[in-house]
Amino acid sequence: MANRHLSRTVAMQTLYEWDFSHPLSAGAGNNNEAEILALADRNLKEFAPEFDDQGFVHSLILGVLQNQAAIDKYIERYAPEWPIDQITIVDRNILRLGVFELIFGKEVPAKVAINEAIELAKTFGGESSGRFVNGVLGAIYKEIPTTEAGEEVIQNLTDDAPPVLQKKAKKGKLKKPR
User: Do 69 and 122 have their domain in common?
Assistant: First the structure.
């Protein structure tokens, strides 16, 4: 298993375990970074004892936690039939990782982030998890505004657009899908 894929697997397992015992909810004060990183280190020791790059695992987990409110808004917007608390814990945390890498991450191209999330869903989720994750992340990817689209995209952003897009639009830093 490649190191980055293993990192995502451990990050997803850690987020799943934390979400199961401390439901992740933005602003609830239960997202103790030190505790969740200790849990990640324990999972690394158990599932990847030879793995020596915990930094990527930690950056994924912290990235999801620190951007969770915006990430969950993306999921709610692009999976409107599924309230966030009704999505299975596995699928919810795979989506959170995928959205984090797709929107906030700078490490990998968007298509790699989507593919990695789909692979996690096929491995750890239910029978239709891969299709569900692909549908949600694919819809988000298609709607990421590009700088080539010019001012029209920026002007068409509505108030219900995710905050990260509003912020980037105001700064003129909308990124082109990779």
Answer: yes
